[in-house]
Amino acid sequence: MPEQAEARFASDAYFLGPKSENSAWVRGEFQAILDHWFDWRRSLFTDDPEAISPQRRLSTEFLRERERLGQAVRILREKLCAEVPTFTPRYIGHMVSEVSLPALLGHFATLLHNPNNTSREVARVGGVIEDEAIAMLAEMVGYDPVQAQGHFTGGGTVANFEAVWRARYRMDHCLSLALHGYETRGESFNAFEAAHAGWDSFEAQRGGSGAIEAELRACSGVLGNPFDYAERLTAATGQPWRGPVLITPGNKHFSWRKAANVFGLGEEAFWNAPLDAEGRLDLDGLDGLIQRARNQGRPVLAIVSVAGTTEAGEIDPVDGVCDRLDALRREGIDIWHHVDGAYGGFFCSMLGGAAEACLEPGRVRALRAVARADSVTLDPHKLGYVPYACGAFLTREVRGYVASSFQAPYIDRAATNDKWACTLEGSRTASGAAATWLTGRSIRFGPDRFGDMLRSTIETRMAFQSAIAAAIPMAHFLPADSNILCFSLARPGEALLQSNRRTGEVFARLQADPAFSVSRTVLAAESYGALIASHVAGWGGPCDSDQLVLLRCVFMNPFWSNAEVERALLPAFIETLQAHLGV
């Protein structure tokens, strides 16, 4: 008896479609949302008078102003027709694609009510939806949804800032306790060891010291005068205090450099861990940086690993980082570990089912290890198929979520569920949380549903790579962990400089051609030296440039899994690429 074909998730039911194929159903759902909103408003305070009477709505002045608005809307509609059509499978340029219907409907319905998740006083429902959506995401990445904490942000940049804020909060508490012991009781002070005590050790030591909150605040580097604090730590350590360092891999997102600047660390304290020949964080190089910080008596504010880099979608060996940090914890050194999964964090939805089979085993281990990190960034507005702007920050446990608290006299302090006091952003829309919530409630973030949809995007990348390799022998590909394909164009023995020139010229021609949208990325030898050398060795040419120029294709669109779409558009892409290459 023939083996039954594997059932695949019907993702096309959850998207409008490039030709608006599901428009009839979607129109009905949008109308139902509007009708429900209209009826809800009418049902409240029925004895109140109408603010806009029938006579007013028929007046000349009123109709003239409404026509003015209608005309402006029509102009806007026409302007938006020139916007980049990121919904089509032909768009494979950047990390944006078709928005899913549950996300769009959830976003729209909540937008009409306009809750501000700064406080339950103005978002009774929005706040609850956020908590439930965060629990869904926590479960997806492997956190215990009961213990995990988090909130939605304006994007991955702010979520990464949230991680630095909390890591600094914990470090500052540990250092303040040690400094208090040194200044009041003459206890020995080792800045590196003290800063990495962790919450368990901090609580135990604080109980034994009898230090009260006011005394610790007086020893805080965050709350006190930073120049005075530096002098006190210099006295305690016997060497000039140079502050903590932030260790990120060379493939990090630009937001980490922003974080170092915003939190006053300075460029010198922004340490890049080297990358291996496949563009992922090099574990031995990370070990060297941790030891260097230890030798210099400089605490490590946080170590960042990346699950889905911006350039090529690489997934760092998160499991290897966790193993090394676990070994340090056994020595009493607890360093904060944050996973920047703004792009690739949603690949965790593939784990535990058939979908994970298209991932290399090392990447499966890395994604499983996200659950061991202290915190993680996700961007639902990328691989969550949620409208902009929607990021999320999660911590594994409650203690990891605490941060500096601020007071606002006009908000009820008794509302303990409110997150306004411990989020970098004040006002926060509930629409992103609702979009994610409705996605989780309908599609569900499991391997046989959402994970299977992401699996199809990786399979599309594989299909494109095979087709390009067969048709264009001069195409040379970067190692690929996910659904991003990067390749250069070089003849055997050709210099890198010449390859870069050709690849750049082909990109310029593709940009001018509306048939397909691709992107370009440029890797610098400063971070990607080993990868560039390995890549150029593939065609045996001299490495005469400190940059590698690549064509970059991001296969997020779910309709590439449609066999008819692939049969029509994949050959068309190959023909377009060949035409601009002149072969």
Fill in the keyword field for this structure.
583 residues; alpha/beta; 7-stranded mixed beta sheet; 4-stranded antiparallel beta sheet; 19 helices; globular
Descriptive report:
By secondary structure, the chain is of the alpha/beta class. The chain has helices at residues 23-43, 54-57, 60-80, 101-113, 124-141, 156-185, 191-195, 198-209, 213-217, 226-237, 255-262, 283-295, 318-329, 361-368, 431-442, 450-471, 496-512, 525-537, 563-581, and strands at 149-153, 245-249, 270-273, 300-306, 337-341, 375-378, 391-395, 475-477, 484-489, 519-524, 547-554. The strands form 2 sheets. A 7-stranded mixed sheet has the order 1-7-6-5-4-2-3, with helices on both faces. It has a 4-stranded antiparallel sheet with strand order 8-9-11-10. α17 (496-512) packs across α19 (563-581). The protein is globular, with a radius of gyration of 27 Å. Residues 406-415 have low confidence and may be disordered.
Strand order, sheet with most strands: 1-7-6-5-4-2-3
Helical run tally: 19
By oligomeric state, this entry counts as: single chain
Question: In percent terms, what proportion of residues is strand?
Answer: 5-15%
Give the structural class. alpha/beta
For the biggest sheet, the summary is: 7 strands, mixed
- Uncertain segments are 406-415
Mean pLDDT over all positions: 94
Order of helices and strands: HHHHHEHHHHHEHEHEHEHEEHHEEHEHEH
Number of extended strands: 11
Radius of gyration, in Å, reads: 27 Å
**First-to-last CA distance:** 47 Å
| Fraction of residues in H or I helices | 40-55%
Shape: globular
